[in-house]
What does this fold into?
Amino acid sequence: MHGFSAGLFLRSSLQLRRIAAFQSLIRFSWSNLIRVFRPLRHRNYALFWSSDLIASIGQFVREVALYWLAYEITGSAWALGILGFCEAAPRLLLGAVGGVIVDRYDRLRLLTGIQFLCCLPVFTLIVLYFMGILQFWHMAVLEVLWATIRSMNPTAGQSLLRDLVPEPELMSAVSLYSIGFNFARIVGPSIGGVLIIWIGVGGCFLYYGVSLVISAVELLSVRLRASMPATGQSSVFSEFKEGLAYIGTAPMILASILAAYVISIFVGTYTRFLAVFAKDILAVGPEGLGLLVAAPGVGAVASLIILGVLEERWSRKHLMWFTAMATPGLLILFCFSRDLWLSVFLLSVFGGMQIIFRTVSRLVIQIEAPRELLGRVMSVFLMDQGMRSLGSMVMGGFVSAFGAAYGLALTSLASIILTTVTFWRLLGRRRN
It folds into this structure.
């Protein structure tokens, strides 16, 4: 009898502990969720964030419609590659110049002007489409014009964050900014696919045009203290050179930029080969491919909710170092997975590590870079997105030579080696 009572007591105690642990987990998750959304209490940030979210969703809707129409007109996959080049080239070529311009002029007015100016190529495309005279070369030219105007948008937007919230909330502000973009990346293409069926390609273009106008009008409502931008007496080249000189004296910023370039070249374009894994390696078909594509975005959003807690326990240097190596490490594990759900899990954690690295890197730049150099420093960091053009060739070459699994594993291994050397040389012997 006593043995039965003791056993019952132990089982009851164990059950109570599980309930308590579950309640603690709920409180932990809820408190972190509240923390990451705290910047929305500030009116200026709330307007900026919702403006960016609306424009980002519209941009992904537009992208789906644009590529669908290009393939419908030409029937050529090569045409899709040309459109991708037309979008990426201005960002890579003009990113550095954009940083100088962002530092010279009022960032809020510049960002607002970009939204309005982007309406020109978008509504021109809409008019040509509904007149029935749109051709592929129109699309390519307008894409170059649109990308040229937007080349300063990421730098201007991210350089503005420091003016919208107090510094203690800057990590949450940067995280929430990334959450908004990743949410748009997840839902935008899905909305675009549905809207093509409901309102057609032209309706999708019109949806994006209206979202740009709404985004710009919201930015007009943001009220900031008058700032004193640089006078711009020097040449663009000398001002950009000044930004590079500062980066060379800031080891944390330099390490984050170099690591971002390495990850973009050796890891960044992995999504282009997911179809090979879905079809030939995992044998899961289009449905499985959809899960693989969506997994990193879901992991990115989830990871940003707990980033504030990670920053309390780890230094920014160690967070950057760990995530810069964990990102390619998880891709290596994915390459050798032969189970769909394990692969989805690995890609989810991969997406989380990737976005934590980029978020912490941007936070380091926001805090350490002087305000008068912030645009130039941020533009150099964001040039990692343009490096993906080179990454496509590097990763494509390895995949062609060794197959998808071994090819991506080898490029990921190269990324681990190069980032380890970078962080060790620049930060290994320094104190936190």
